[in-house]
From TrEMBL:
Signal peptide: none annotated. Pfam families: CHAD (PF05235). Residues 11-287 form the CHAD domain. This is CHAD domain-containing protein. Coiled coil: none annotated. InterPro entries: CHAD_dom (IPR007899), CHAD_dom_sf (IPR038186).
């Protein structure tokens, strides 16, 4: 076999690998999305969103200028799925807290959480209505045609230009830069500031990008990157716990005590508890340990 033929053969193999990986995610996204529209089942919403997120990761590598027109479609779908999924997770979190309060005999906190859950369920109805309206407008025959055209006419040329290992290294560098920013902020008297929480949130997003890219593009990565999915999942989980607890508190404050018709004493006790949980998660994470002030 001549050098040119060998090069062509390798390129066809590379294109086929990309096509198989993309099609696997696309079919999962399509099926789970249509299932989600039938019953809004938690797992269908979750899987549709995850597969959509992985598709976005691969498309951003292959086609960063979004010439195929696919990226904006998947991005809109992810946004709508994300609103419902986030509401599902938030409601489930408050349900668990309510169960704990009832087991502890704390009826006032249980009543507060019952009101919060009802409020959030109303919001979720709005998100579900928007999803039911907008998702079919995105996932239809037009998308099928765009997808087929992308695979048959664009994929080979795009895949030929990309080395996912280089992209992963760039994502690693971006993560390390954000981690450096966090470390600069996270000394003892500044770790609980808005600046610190915002920096930690950006670090979590960078870890999530590494996790999803390493998972979706595993077929094209060097061995040294194969453990990245688990490594960055652990990091994302730790940082996500802080972010989730902060979100619970922000959600309550955004609703307000008056809207929920909750007594001041019960409100203050529960929001104080949430603040303590946020700070406890913050101080016990080992991704960005808080630097204590050294005394001489």
């Amino acid at each position: 076999m001549t050098g040119d033929k060998l090069t062509k053969e390798r390129q066809l193999t590379k294109t086929k690998q990309w096509e198989q990986a993309l099609n696997h995610l696309y079919i999962n996204f399509w099926d789970y999305s249509h299932d989600a529209l039938n019953k809004f089942a938690d797992e269908d919403i979750h899987q549709a969103r995850v597969n959509c997120r992985k598709l976005l990761s691969l498309l951003s590598i292959l086609d960063p200028r979004h010439t195929s027109g696919l990226y904006p479609i998947f991005k809109k779908a992810q946004k709508r799925l994300g609103k419902v999924r986030d509401a599902d997770v938030l409601i489930e979190s408050f349900k668990n807290k309510r169960k704990q309060a009832k087991e502890n005999g704390d009826s006032k906190t249980a009543d507060l959480l019952k009101a919060v859950i009802a409020y959030q369920k109303d919001k979720r109805k709005t998100y579900r209505k928007k999803l039911a309206k907008e998702l079919p407008e995105l996932i239809n025959e037009d998308l099928e045609e765009k997808w087929k055209t992308f695979l048959s006419e664009q994929l080979e040329a795009l895949a030929a230009k990309k080395n996912v290992n280089v992209v992963m290294r760039e994502l690693e560098i971006a993560y390390e830069q954000k981690k450096k920013t966090c470390k600069a902020i996270f000394h003892e008297d500044n770790a609980e500031s808005k600046e610190a929480f915002d920096a930690l949130h950006q670090l979590r997003i960078a870890a999530k990008e590494l996790r999803y890219t390493s998972s979706a593009a595993d077929f094209a990565l060097n061995q040294k990157f194969h453990a990245h999915e688990e490594i960055y999942k652990e990091i994302q989980d730790q940082l996500g716990l802080i972010n989730d607890k902060r979100l619970w508190l922000e959600t309550l404050n955004a609703i307000g005590r008056e809207e929920l018709d909750i007594g001041k004493k019960a409100w203050n006790a529960f929001t104080s508890q949430l603040k303590d949980e946020v700070l406890d998660a913050l101080h016990h994470n080992d991704v960005i340990p808080i630097q204590t002030t050294q005394t001489k």
